[in-house]
Amino acid sequence: MAYNLLKGKRGIISGALDANSIAWKVAEKAHEEGASFVLTNAPIAMRMGAINNLAEATGSKIIPADATNVEELEKLFSESQEVLGGKIDFVLHSIGMSVNIRKKIPYTELNYDYFMKGIDVSAMSLHKMLAVAKKLDAINEWGSVVALTYMAAQRTYPFYTDMADIKAMLESIARSFGYHYGVEKKVRINTVSQSPTKTTAGTGIKGFGDFFDYAEAIAPLGNASAEDCANYCITLFSDLTRMVTMQNLFHDGGYSSTGVSNEIMQKMGVEE
Question: Which has the closest alpha carbon to 152: 134, 168, 130, 172?
Answer without folding.
Answer: 168
